[in-house]
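A favour between colleagues. Tell me how you read the following sequence-structure pair.

===
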Amino acid sequence: MTTTARETVPGRVRDALTLAGPAEPDVTVPRAYRTLPDPERLDLFVDRLVDYRARVHTCTVQDTSRVIADVLREHGARRIGVPAGHDPEWVAEYDGETFQDTADAGSRGTADP
């Protein structure tokens, strides 16, 4: 019988997790490496996104909902999934359908009220 990657890969992941043992307790990660002021860090982040040919739309907090809605309209999005716990204000100006995307929702998700 031939095994497929679909069968082999999850088995290897399970084996690796078993060999790794239990996870360590929460560890505090030092953040002293954050030495740039916020505006410079944002500029660096945008520069890196542009390096990957991402289209970057900078905006203020007050304009976030409008910019997101405009970009979704540009792409013809009629239905989008949003993660649990997202700020609903981010998509308040979007006139399409939104649904809460969950791991067990499959491709359809659950519609937001």
Remarks:
- Residues 5-20 form the longest helix (16 residues).
- The chain is about 35% helix and 10% strand.
- The longest strand covers residues 79-83.
- The two ends are 49 Å apart (CA to CA).
